[in-house]
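User: Can you recover a sequence for this backbone? Please restate the input before giving your answer.

Assistant: Of course. Working from this structure:
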């Protein structure tokens, strides 16, 4: 197939799903994928590039921080996206896949319908709802701009894009349910949750090789994640299991992020039981955490984040680490189906006791860890997700326009 991929990701792309599926897997399977994408920074340049079997139509950007420079940056991106009209009109593609763009999606949708080219949409995050949520919470930087953006994006998404798309991919089963509640037929929606490449991760260890009492959190220490909750929950675990040591593997976006957590650690008297590693290269961070006895995946409960698909949980499971996560739709489903750990409410006492329960039963480490590893191998690799996307494309191409959703793969 010949695919034109129009994405909000910047080039070089760092979003794992975009690069794994459209940059590597589909081209390896013989499909041609061209990209309409914007440069990540001015130093990247602009113009045409080649990548695997396809071509990149690269928009320039503007690194300035002023309002005018930001508008110029978006204008350059939109002008590049307008190439979809000429490219599709020339009938170079079987289908166009748009990811997380709205105005560009409408333009692509019109030209695709006019030329009988397949039009597919990919929604990775509820942008419209997030903008309106910030307005309601009083955290929007430009209140009226966020209000207008949220309403315009929501109208375009639910009234135009998803209704007229041949099929759409969403981030999770919860997002599929949320969108179906807006009146979009569920059979036109296929979840493609977070996945990974097992070859890029350190292998799982035998349970006997794990460090007793080693508890890890892998990820950003951004204050918005409410990780002071995690410190207080760990204090509960430490009172039950005295050899527990929490390793926070990652850094904050600003110095005050880590300072905030250090204050929480001091307030609980845990200075000797919490290790801050700072930001590490991903390969080094993964090696650091893979001998842990338990991995933690706290996810602050909010309707905006309920439809996301946490990758951290899958990374722990891929390395055979038992997990503790809170009651988030995706985490609840994955932990329940896999048996890889414990899922509890967002309550410090419950979360801390779950950590201690795993630490106090080292005989279960291997059972939980390998259950998680098997689940990832079967359900959450990049190849499995590529299968899911490719099946939908092929069904459409072969004339089955009333796509019934992806099969169980």
């Amino acid at each position: 197939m010949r695919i034109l991929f129009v994405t909000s990701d910047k080039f070089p792309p760092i979003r794992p799903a975009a690069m794994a599926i459209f940059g590597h897997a589909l081209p390896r399977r013989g499909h041609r994928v061209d990209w309409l994408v914007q440069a990540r920074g001015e130093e990247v340049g602009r113009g045409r590039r080649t990548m695997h079997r396809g071509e990149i139509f690269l928009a320039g950007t503007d690194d300035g921080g002023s309002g005018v420079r930001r508008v110029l940056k978006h204008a350059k991106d939109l002008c590049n996206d307008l190439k979809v009209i000429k490219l599709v009109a020339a009938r170079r593609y079987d289908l166009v896949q748009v990811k997380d763009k709205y105005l560009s999606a409408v333009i692509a949708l019109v030209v695709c319908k006019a030329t009988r080219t397949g039009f597919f949409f990919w929604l990775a995050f509820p942008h419209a709802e997030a903008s309106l949520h910030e307005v309601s919470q009083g955290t929007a930087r430009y209140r009226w701009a966020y209000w207008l953006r949220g309403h315009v994006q929501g109208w375009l998404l639910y009234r135009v894009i998803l209704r007229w798309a041949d099929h759409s991919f969403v981030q999770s089963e919860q997002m599929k349910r949320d969108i179906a509640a807006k009146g979009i037929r569920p059979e036109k929606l296929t979840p493609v949750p977070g996945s990974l490449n097992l070859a890029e991760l350190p292998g799982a260890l035998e349970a006997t090789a794990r460090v007793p009492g080693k508890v890890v959190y892998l990820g950003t220490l951004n204050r918005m994640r409410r990780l002071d909750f995690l410190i207080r929950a760990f204090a509960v675990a430490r009172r039950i299991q005295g050899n527990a040591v929490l390793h926070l593997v990652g850094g904050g976006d600003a110095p005050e992020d880590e300072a905030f957590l250090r204050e929480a650690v001091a307030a609980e008297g845990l200075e000797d039981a919490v290790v801050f590693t700072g930001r590490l290269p991903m390969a080094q961070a993964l090696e650091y955490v893979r001998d842990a006895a338990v991995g933690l995946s706290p996810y602050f409960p909010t309707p905006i984040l309920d439809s996301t698909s946490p990758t951290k949980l899958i990374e722990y499971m891929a390395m055979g680490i038992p997990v503790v996560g809170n009651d988030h739709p995706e985490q609840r489903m994955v932990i329940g189906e896999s048996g890889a750990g414990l899922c509890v409410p967002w309550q410090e006492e419950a979360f801390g006791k779950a950590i201690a329960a795993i630490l106090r039963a080292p005989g279960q480490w291997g059972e939980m860890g390998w259950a998680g590893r098997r689940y990832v191998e079967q359900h959450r690799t990049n190849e499995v997700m590529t299968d899911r996307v490719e099946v939908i494309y092929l069904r459409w191409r072969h004339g089955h326009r009333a796509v019934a959703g992806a099969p169980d793969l």
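That completes the design. The first strand starts at residue 2 and ends at 11.
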